[in-house]
Specification:
This protein is of the alpha/beta class. Helix content is 32%, strand content 17%. The model has no long low-confidence stretch (mean pLDDT 95). The structure holds 1-O-phosphono-alpha-D-mannopyranose. 1-O-phosphono-alpha-D-mannopyranose binds at residues 19-20, 26-27, 51-53, 57, 138, 185-189, 191, 232. Involved in the synthesis of the GDP-mannose and dolichol-phosphate-mannose required for a number of critical mannosyl transfer reactions.
């Protein structure tokens, strides 16, 4: 049974988690051990995930085959940096990237990206170079259809040749007045969204009524692996209301939770 927020061992404390590299290996499934730790943690604090990917992809990663709706395993679920938001399994109102930017500006931007990608010289190109999402657009020079092996190879290639970094710099110069933020969060792509629509966007949904959680949240912890400047966890990690924790892998996340909240040695 899930305890009401006010009856957790540390009421007013919440732990938020990035998904890729923090709760799961990049684009892979969560382990049963991680799910067990998160379940135990929920007796101590409120919990939530804050992923850059859309809900469908996060579901593929956090919901094991045959399991019930994974949104019920967390108090809050934030996909696309919080543009899609759930509280206690119920969807909250959301925003959209296309409404914010407008069709004409969006088309100009996409055409430029596709033209730029068409001129790239990289070892492998697959399909789905641009993915349109509710709260952002995701741009991938190799294409989102790349296999796990091709992803890793691209990531290594990109570390040496800075394909994504250079692409982002060109976009910043080409569209200086668009008010966009670029975030290299994963292995093969970067996310583009309105300035301020980074993971801090999710924080506005953490306001609880006095009768549900007297005094609201006093400590917001965030765990992420891309907490460096330019990484997609950086803004929420360094937000003044947030206590940020950098992790190196899902195993490290478990270890830190054991030390901080579960009083276990792993
Ligand atoms: O959650 C981190 C990133 O995961 C994916 O990135 P990639 O496919 O490049 O590994 C994407 O879903 C991206 O939007 C997200 O930020």
């Amino acid at each position: 049974m899930v305890l009401p927020l006010s009856q957790r061992k540390n009421p007013g404390v919440i732990c938020l988690f990035d998904v890729d590299g923090t709760l799961t290996p990049a684009r892979q499934s969560v382990s049963p051990k991680m799910l067990q730790v998160l379940k135990e943690l929920r007796d101590h604090t409120a919990t939530g995930f804050v992923g850059g990917s859309d809900l469908q992809k996060i579901r593929e990663q956090l919901q094991l085959p045959g399991a019930e709706n994974f949104l019920n395993d967390f108090d809050y679920g934030f996909a696309e940096n919080g543009l899609t938001a759930y509280r206690m399994g119920e969807e909250l109102p959301s925003e959209s990237f296309i409404n914010w930017l407008g069709e004409e500006k969006y088309k100009k931007f996409i055409k430029f990206c596709l033209a730029y990608i068409s001129k790239l010289e990289i070892p492998v190109m697959r399909g789905t170079f641009i993915e349109f999402r509710r709260g952002m657009v995701n741009v991938s020079p190799i294409g989102r259809n790349a296999t796990v092996k091709e992803r890793i190879e691209f990531q290594d290639y990109d570390r040496e040749h800075h394909i994504r970094r250079d692409f982002v710099n060109v976009l910043k110069k080409e569209f200086p007045d668009y008010g966009l933020t670029y975030s290299i969060g994963g292995q093969i792509s970067f996310d583009v969204f309105p300035a301020g629509w980074d993971k801090t966007f999710a924080l506005q949904n953490l306001k609880e009524k006095e009768d549900v959680l007297p005094g609201g949240y006093k400590e917001i912890h965030f765990f992420g692996d891309k907490t460096f400047e330019g990484g997609n966890d950086y803004e929420i990690f360094s937000h003044p209301s947030v206590i940020g924790h950098t992790v190196t892998s899902p195993e490290d996340t478990i270890q830190q939770l054991n030390q901080l909240f579960l009083q276990k040695t792993s």
